[in-house]
Amino acid sequence: MKPRLIALIATALALALVVAACGSSSKTTTGSGGSSGGSSGSSSSSSGSGTINGAGSTLAAPIYQQWGSTLKGQGLTVNFNPVGSGAGQTQLEAATVDFAGSDPSLKPSDVAKMKGAVLQFPVAAGAITVSYNLSGIKSGLKLDGPTISKIFSGQIKTWNDPAIKSLNPGMSLPSSNITVVHRSDSSGTTQGFTTFLSDTDPTWKSSVGEGKDVKWSTGTGAKGNSGVAAVVHQTAGAIGYVEQAYALENNFTYAAVKNSAGSYVLPSIPNTSAAFLGIEIPPDLGISTINSPNPGAYPIVSQTFVDAYKDPCKDGGASSGTAGALKKFLTYAFGAGQQTLGQGSNQLPYAPLPSSLADKDNTQLATMVCNGSAIP
Amino acid sequence: MEASATTVAGGRSALERSPASRLPDRALKWGLSGLAAAILVLIVYFFIRLIGESHTVFSQYGLSFVFGNDWDVNRNIYHGAAMLVGTLITSTIALIIGVPVAVASAVFINELCPRRLRQPLSILVDLLAAVPSVVYGLWGVFVLAPKLLGGEKWFARTFSFIPWIGGGTPTLYNYFIAALILAIMILPIVSAISREVIATVPAENKEAALALGATRWEMIRMAVLPYSRPGITGGAMLGLGRALGETIAVVLVIGAAPVIGNHLFAQGNTFAAVIANEFGEAQGIHVSALFAAGLVLFILTLIVNVIARWFVSRGSHGARGTGATGMTIASTDLSEA
Questions:
Q1: A124 or B314: which carries more pLDDT confidence?
Q2: A3 Cβ under 8 Å from any chain B Cβ
Q3: CB 3.0-4.6 Å disulfide test: which of A313, B108, B185, B281 passes with A370?
Q4: Which residue of B has its CA nearest to A235?
Q5: Is residue B333 within 8 Å of B126, Cβ to Cβ?
Q6: Which residue has the higher pLDDT, B3 or A270?
Q7: What is the tally of helices (H) and strands (E) in chain A?
Q8: Max Cα separation, chain B?
C-alpha cells in the first residue's frame, strides 16, 4: 500500500506542477501590483514577428478571436486575453501586450501612465439592450432614460406603474413585480449603461452615478452577461441590461429606448451602427457613442477601441517585425475585418464602423512608427 | 558485543558507517527542512505582502474598513461590514446545515450500514469533494436558485413571526442559497474526518455500552459521540475554513449586493466574492481595498484554523485522521482499499 501511496502523491505533485506551469505561461499577469509586469514582457519583444498579443475588453473579445482565426491563415497569430478593459490598459502600460482592447476612451490620467504616446482606434460598437421577461409582451415595449433609471433604482416596482403605462398606451401590462437584474462583477457594460442613465436622468447621476461598479439600491447581481441573461431567462417579470450579442443569442425580448432625438429605437445592428454618425469626433478619436444625436441611433451603445503605442518599438519594446504585424492586424481590422461584423448569419452581431470613421482610423494608423521610422 | 567490535585504522568503529554513506540521510534532513521552511516563508511573505498592498486603505479608513457599512466603488468608499457579515452568515448557516448531515452520514457508515455498503458509500461522499466548485455554482444558478424560490417564499410567509428567518421577500440569489451550496461543499471533509474519528472509538467502549443494555442509539449517544466530539468539532472548523474562503460558487449565487441583508433570504456579499467580482477592473485604491479584503479573510481563516487545531489537540485520543489536509484522509482511504 505504502509505495503505491507515495507514487500517487508524487504523480499528483508532478501534475500540479505541470498545471501551475501551464497556467502561468498561458496567461500574462493581470498587472495588479505593477511590479510583476516585467516578467512577461518577453511575449511581445522576443517572439516571432508573426505574433501579436492583446488583452482587455470582454465585449470585443469575440471580434478579436474571430479576426485572429482569420489572420492565422495569413501567417499572423493574434492572441487576445479578455481580462477586462481596465486590466488591458494596465498591461499596455507595462508593455506586456502589443495592444489593449478598451471600451472607454483613454482618460488623460490613463495616457499619463503610458510609456509613451498612445493611439486609440475605434473598431466597433455593441448595443446594450434592456431585456425583459414578460410573458404576453413579446415586443413593442418602449422605455425612456428616466423610466429605466427609476426601474433600476427601485422607485418603479411593478410593470403596470403609471410611468411605464404612459410610455406604452394601449399595452396591457401585468401588475407583477419587477425584478431588476444587474452585473455583480466590474464591467464596461455597466459603465455604458450607467453613463446613459446619468446622461438622461440627473437624479441617477447624483444618487448612483456612472462606473464599472456602482452601488445598486435594488435588484439581483449576476456574474457576466451570461449570468444576467440566465436570471432574466429564469425569472418572470425580470429586467436586465445585456449586451446585444447575448440578447440576440438568447432570443430575448428587449425594449425600444428613446434616443436623444426623441424617437424609440430598437437595438438592431443598423441602429447601433447609426450611433457612430453625428457624434463629435475629437482629434484623438476618443469618441463616445452613448446617446448619439443621430435620430436613427439606438442610445445605449458602447464603442470599443484598440489602444496601441504610437511607437511600439521604442515604447512597447516590440521588434520591427512585431510592429509590422501589429500594423497588418490593424489594417485588417479597419478594412476587411469590418466585413465580418453585422447582422448576417455568418457575421458577428456587432456594429461595424462607418467608412468615414474607418478612414480616420487608417489615417491615424499611418502615423505609427518603429523607432521613429515608418513601418513598411 | 561492544567489546568484540574491531577497530580499523582511523580509530573508527567498524560498525560505524562511513560519512559518505550518511550523505543521503543528511540531504534528506536538510532538504525536507528547507521545503518545510519554504512553506512558512511563503505564508509570512504572503501576509507581509497583503499588509503592504492594503496599507493605503487601512491608513485611510482604519478599522472602519472592517466595521463600517458602505461599499461604493464609484465614490471610492470602502467599508466592508456587509462582506464581513455575509461571510460569517453564509459560513455559519453552511455549518448548521452541513455538519449534522456529515456527522449523521459518518455515524451511519461506521455503525449502522451493512459492511458491504461501507466502502462505496464513503467513496460517494468523498466524491463530492472532487466536483469543481464552479460546477456547484452553476448548478445553483440554473437549478437550485430558481427551483427553491417558490419554497423560500412560502417559508418566509409561513414563518414570518420568526425574526430574521421569515418575513422578508426572498430574492432569487440570497444568503440561504449560497449557504446551502457551501453546506454541500463542506460535507465531504467534515464527513471524512468524522468517519475516521468515529472509527477510532474503542470497541470495548461500545461493547460495554451494549452490555449494559443500551440500544444502538444509546450506544452511539453515550459511547461514540462523546468520544469523538473533539475530532468532529475540529473537522467542522476545517469545514468552516473552507466555507469562509469559497469563492466562485458563492460569487454566482450571492447576489453581490454590498448591504447587510435583513433576512435569511436576502442577498449580500462575501469578502471572497467581492474580490473575485471586482478585481478584474479595479484600479488605484480599489485594488488596495480588495487586498485589504483578502487580508481580513486571511486573518479570519487563520483564527478558525487555530481554533480547529486546538479542538483537535485537546481531544488527542480522537485525533487519528484529523489532519488539516485531505492527505491523511486520502491515505486512509487508500489503505482501506
A1: A124
A2: no
A3: A313
A4: B146
A5: yes
A6: A270
A7: 14, 14
A8: 93
